[in-house]
Write a structure and sequence with these properties.
Elements: H1 2-28, E1 30-36, E2 41-50, E3 54-58, E4 64-68, E5 72-79, H2 83-86, E6 97-102, H3 104-108, E7 110-119, E8 124-141, E9 144-163, E10 171-191, E11 197-219, E12 222-233, E13 245-256
Antiparallel strand pairs: 1-2, 1-5, 2-3, 3-4, 6-7, 6-13, 7-8, 8-9, 9-10, 10-11, 11-12, 12-13
């Protein structure tokens, strides 16, 4: 009889001691999930919360993000995903789009644009744009003077790939584009030892192949994208002053809708 009572006590004690272990295992299998108003889904562990103001969430890879309460749609606890997927951010590929502009070409020379960008899938987007091309060249070599000014308007598009994204349209990106640009130019040259000046002008329509590399910084619904654009006028009129290859800085500022 005593032996039976002891066995029962051991079973009961083991059952009660297993409760916190089971509970801890269950908690370890859950994670905090934050749904943002811009469509992003952030997974990790909330380590700091200021009521009605902000939260700080820690990802599995130990990166930290702070979000204001007015950016958040809702917060839940959900089953833990695999390590690879729990450190990623899901983006809303169906509703979000970015309208942006790059004014650097108009300011410094090179290519400028106004663009529309939308997701194809979680990592790829397409961009449709209207272009402005501006290029000035001058040379002064021991009495030989040469000046040229180019202006062009066109349209085109590109395909972008994003990596290390933490919000829609953010992170490192690379793009390949194709544009059609109608360019006009004026030039003149003269030798200071002579009194006459030779000048000319013209225009041509050309196809431009380009590549772009940069980083898209997300600040709420604003996207700031410093990058470098390199391209080649692959169809040119013989004798035209249009530059063959160019490298130009770009800073696109966009709004997420």
């Amino acid at each position: 009889m005593k032996k039976s009572v002891c066995i029962s006590c051991i079973i009961i004690a083991f059952a009660f001691s297993a409760v916190p272990i089971i509970s801890a295992v269950a908690q370890e299998q859950m994670q905090d999930v934050v749904y943002l108003k811009n469509g992003s889904i952030i997974r990790g562990m909330i380590i700091e919360q200021i009521p009605f103001k902000s939260i700080k969430i820690k990802m599995v890879d130990n990166s930290l993000f702070v979000f204001q309460m007015d950016e958040i749609e809702r917060m839940t606890k959900e089953p833990l995903l695999t390590p690879a997927s729990s450190t990623s951010v899901s983006v809303n590929t169906s509703n979000n789009m970015v309208i942006g502009t790059n004014p650097m070409g108009a300011i410094l020379g090179g290519i400028s644009w106004i663009s529309f960008e939308k997701y194809i899938n979680n990592n790829l987007t397409y961009q449709i744009r209207a272009d402005l091309w501006r290029y000035n060249e001058s040379e002064n070599d021991r009495g030989y003077l040469y000046e040229e000014k180019q202006t062009g308007f066109g349209f085109g598009g590109s395909v972008r790939g994003y990596v290390a994204s933490y919000q829609p349209y953010s992170g490192l990106f690379g793009a390949i584009g194709l544009d059609v640009v109608n360019t006009s130019w004026d030039w003149q040259e003269r030798v200071t030892s002579y009194s006459f000046t030779v000048s000319g002008n013209g225009k041509t329509t050309t196809v431009v192949f380009s590549a772009q590399f940069g980083y898209a910084l997300a600040i709420s619904n604003v996207r700031i994208e410093p990058s470098v654009v390199t391209g080649n006028f692959i169809l040119r009129e013989k004798g035209a002053g249009v530059a063959g290859v160019f490298v130009a800085p770009s800073v696109q500022i966009g709004i997420l809708f």
